[in-house]
Amino acid sequence: MHELSIALSIIDGVVEEARREGLSRIEKVHLRIGRLSGVDKEALRFSYDIAAEDTPLAGTQLVIEDVDVVIECPTCRAERSVQQLPLLACPECGAAPERVVCGDELEISGLELAA
Q1: Domain residues for 44?
Q2: What is the DSSP string of 104-115?
Q3: What would the pLDDT profile of 54-63 be if each residue is shown by its tens digit?
């Protein structure tokens, strides 16, 4: 279950940032997770709750924003949202993408402090 190692990394990063910025009483950790990241969100939530026990983040909530897959189509010369995964092709013309613009990220996007 690689979600546990991801949860541990998130906790380490947030705790380090909180110490550096002098933050206390974090209530929510916001994440952006792309559909191509390979992360099982429910397994991550479960792993996070367990890994956060006995840390300054115990009881905090993960808020996950899903990030759709967007590709750059070389034929259309446009960015297109892809919904038919695992097929990674332009939904308009069927061309293979030059690059994935977004949809593979896994990042901490913000922290909310308790009032």
Answers
A1: 2-113
A2: --EEEEEEEE--
A3: 999 999 999 9
The tokens of 35 are what? 């559909």
Average of per-residue pLDDT across 37-52 = 96
Q: How many domains does the chain have?
A: 1
80: left (phi over 0), alpha (psi -120 to 50) or beta: beta
Query: What is the DSSP code (8-state) at residue 98?
Result: S
User: Three-state SS for 88?
Assistant: coil
The CATH number for 78's domain is 3.30.2320.80
Q: Which of 58, 66, 49 has its CA nearest to residue 7?
A: 49
Closest CA to 93 of 106, 85, 82: 82
